[in-house]
Amino acid sequence: MEWLEKIIDETLDKMAKEEILMKRPDPNMPNEMFDSTIESDSDWKGWKPIPSVLDDSDLNKLEKMIGIELPLSYRHFLKYKHFYELDIADFAVNFPTHLPDKSLDGFKEWFFEYYEPELLIGKGLVYFAGFQDYGLLCFDSKVKRENNEYPIVFIDHEDLITTHHYSDDFKELMTADRERGNRFIMELNEYYRKQ
Length: 195
Known about the structure:
- By secondary structure, this protein is α+β, with helices and mostly antiparallel strands.
- The protein has helices at residues 2-16, 56-66, 72-80, 105-112, 170-175, 180-193; strands at 23-24, 45-46, 50-51, 81-82, 93-94, 125-131, 135-140, 152-156, 159-167.
- It has one domain (50-193): 3-Layer(aba) Sandwich (SMI1/KNR4-like), CATH 3.40.1580.
- It is built from six helices and nine strands.
- The longest helix has 15 residues, at 2-16.
- InterPro entries: Knr4/Smi1-like_sf (IPR037883).
């Protein structure tokens, strides 16, 4: 998945030019992610992306834990790099921090503690990113596709029942332009205006 690695690498290179994006106030920052070339400021320390420690066996465990197979492209995403932040072109997409964690504890918290599992996973929805501060982006595993490249739906924080189509798959999300999120918000506002 050369296209995906290229997007991730170019995004991280662009972020590295704005030092503030490469700092985090994390007292438990993994040593291997600490970047001593970035000057610390109070609690804020520099971080750098590192190769992922996750492999197929880890992701197989994760899939077994949630009972849903992940998209092949998203599996590659998780196996490629660890980061605190990844600012892809579609500024509305907020990926969670992806730290080295072979125990998968971060995923357990993400999938089972942020929202009631029966509201998302129980309905075949895999929450993988936030959408600004409006809601969630989820893979909709009810729609079967080759390599599990599910469509992505938006769910409002305040209405975990109604889903809205956001993109056809993970590749479309990762390659979207900067204004995709704004166009979606206008579409969503129009939808609610008609209700």
